């Protein structure tokens, strides 16, 4: 593992460090103060879909512990905090009336960040669509695109003057594929045709929101966050290599090509046949609206085999508690690929981190495995930077243990431990390490190195 001084020396003084969370995973207060129902509130009630049969009703109770949590973030000495607004908290039905109490909560959050010297990075859609919009077709309906643009404008008018960054969507692939094709995430639909149309509407709403926000005079930087793996063939055989290229086109380029080139990959369109999306005149041009930044979420590589899906036991590298291979080189390779293929805007790692079964001893959490994961991945970002990729910041997923979607509370990604009986927060050793790394970068900043 690289030591802190060497690691810090890989980054320029203005490189930004942060942590990330999302509303549904930490807030709780799911039915309080006028909040509307989200598709995740509904989905969690379907028997069998969440591993520990849990839900987001209380989560980390962040809604009621806002000030203490802001102090916790500030205590790590970071530059920025990435969070999301829950659409149903601010506009319960996804259209029409706004919920003043919900807006006031995010007002306090943003002001609290600024007061502590932290730049607010807001995500509009981290998956918790108002259920009322799902009842009208959700992201499969083109009307949701226009509702999203209105929601973006509502947030801009209330908070925009104080935001450093606005991300439209977090990981559209997850919403489309896990939510609408595999059905393992909300809203639990199993249709490839629906999923593909959903992906198009997510991208379109991103582009139209960017145009509308700019027309409104937004001063925050505007972008999107994509989840991407580095896809590799299982063997060097031509068949495995072809499968790796096709998987990469489906999982990654389906999202990044339209954003940066204004077109869907032809081989994916051919592969989709009748499931290809309905695209209207002007859609692709809107999707390709230039962005101020790209956010990349990276957790692991993906392996491809022409023989079919590869089981975890056949993946050679050590794995996190999610069963995801630990492969930091993939992060560097992914960033180099993106840099080669596109004229990248300034780029953040908006999520990176690992779930590990933390054994809590002596009132501290000695999570050396998580620290090692972070250090090796941050080193990979430094290598990409040295090779010319325009990296401007890094955010750990996640600030604290939280509701990990269909895995419930069993998988812990936090650098801060949460005791779900008492809701007490305890910084893990990885949080102290990250704080020290950022402090080292700050010291270099002050010294003008
Ligand atoms: C990403 C999500 C985030 C979290 C991590 C582990 O796909 O954006 O909310 O669940 O995975």
Keywords:
14% strand; binds beta-D-fucopyranose; 449 residues; single chain; 42% helix; alpha/beta; two-stranded parallel ribbon
Distance between the termini: 23 Å
Low-confidence segments, given as residue ranges, are: none
Largest sheet entry? 8 strands, parallel, barrel
Which percent bin holds the helix content?
40-55%
* Structural class determined from secondary elements: alpha/beta
Main sheet: strand order: 1-2-3-4-5-7-9-12
**Tally of individual helices:** 16
Bound molecules: beta-D-fucopyranose
Count of DSSP E strands? 14
Helix/strand order, N-terminal first: HEHHHEHHEHHEHHEEHHHEEHEEEHEEEH
Beta-strand portion reads 5-15%
Let me know the average pLDDT. Answer: 98
Shape: globular
Using the CA coordinates, give the radius of gyration: 21 Å
Structure description:
The chain is of the alpha/beta class and 449 residues long. It is built from 16 helices and 14 strands. The chain has helices at 4-8, 23-26, 39-43, 66-75, 87-90, 100-115, 131-134, 142-159, 172-180, 192-215, 238-261, 266-272, 283-287, 328-341, 368-386, 429-447; strands at 16-20, 80-84, 119-125, 165-170, 221-227, 230-233, 293-297, 301-304, 347-351, 360-361, 364-365, 391-397, 416-418, 425-427. Strands 1-2-3-4-5-7-9-12 form an eight-stranded parallel beta barrel, surrounded by six helices. Strands 6-8 form a two-stranded parallel sheet. Strand 10 and strand 11 (364-365) form a beta hairpin. Helix 4 (66-75) packs parallel to helix 6, helix 9 (172-180) runs antiparallel to helix 10 and helix 15 runs parallel beside helix 16. The chain is globular, with a radius of gyration of 21 Å. The mean pLDDT is 98. It binds beta-D-fucopyranose (FCB). Beta-D-fucopyranose (FCB) binds next to loops.
């Amino acid at each position: 593992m690289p030591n802190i001084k060497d690691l810090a020396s890989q980054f320029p003084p203005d490189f930004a460090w942060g942590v990330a969370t999302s509303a549904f995973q930490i807030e709780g207060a799911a039915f309080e103060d006028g909040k509307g129902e989200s598709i995740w509130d509904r989905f969690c009630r379907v028997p069998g879909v969440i591993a520990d049969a849990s839900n987001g009703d209380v989560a980390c109770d962040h809604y009621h512990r806002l000030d203490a949590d802001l102090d916790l973030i500030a205590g790590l000495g970071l530059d920025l905090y990435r969070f999301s607004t829950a659409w149903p908290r601010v506009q319960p039905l996804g259209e029409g009336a706004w919920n003043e109490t919900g807006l006031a909560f995010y007002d306090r959050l943003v002001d609290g960040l600024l007061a502590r010297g932290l730049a607010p990075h807001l995500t509009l859609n981290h998956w918790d669509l108002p259920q009322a919009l799902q009842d009208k077709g959700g992201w499969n309906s083109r009307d949701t695109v226009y509702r999203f643009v209105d929601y973006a404008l509502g947030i801009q008018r209330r908070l925009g003057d104080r935001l450093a960054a606005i991300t439209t969507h977090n990981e559209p692939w997850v919403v489309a594929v896990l939510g609408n094709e595999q059905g393992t995430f909300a809203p639990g639909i199993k249709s490839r045709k629906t999923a593909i149309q959903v992906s198009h509407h997510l991208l379109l709403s991103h582009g139209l929101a960017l145009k509308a926000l700019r027309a409104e005079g937004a001063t925050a930087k505007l972008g999107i966050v994509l989840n991407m793996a580095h896809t590799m063939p299982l063997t060097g055989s031509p068949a495995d290599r072809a499968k790796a290229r096709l998987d990469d086109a489906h999982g990654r380029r389906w999202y990044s090509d339209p954003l940066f080139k204004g077109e869907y990959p032809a081989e994916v369109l051919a592969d989709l046949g009748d499931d290809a999306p309905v695209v209207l005149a002007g859609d692709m041009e809107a999707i390709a609206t230039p962005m101020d930044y790209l956010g990349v979420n990276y957790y692991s590589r993906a392996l491809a085999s022409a023989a079919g899906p590869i089981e975890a036991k056949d993946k050679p590298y050590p794995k996190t508690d999610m069963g995801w291979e630990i492969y930091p080189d993939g992060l560097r390779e992914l960033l180099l690929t993106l840099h080669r293929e596109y004229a990248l805007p300034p780029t953040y790692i908006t999520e990176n981190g690992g779930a590990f079964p933390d054994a809590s001893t002596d009132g501290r959490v000695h999570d050396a495995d998580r620290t090692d994961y972070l250090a090796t991945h941050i080193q990979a970002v430094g290598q990409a930077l040295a090779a010319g990729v325009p990296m401007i910041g890094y955010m750990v997923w996640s600030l604290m243990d939280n509701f990990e979607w269909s895995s419930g509370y069993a998988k812990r990604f936090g650098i801060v431990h949460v005791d779900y009986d008492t809701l007490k927060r305890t910084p893990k050793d990885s949080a102290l390490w990250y704080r020290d790394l950022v402090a080292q970068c700050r010291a270099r900043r002050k010294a003008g190195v």
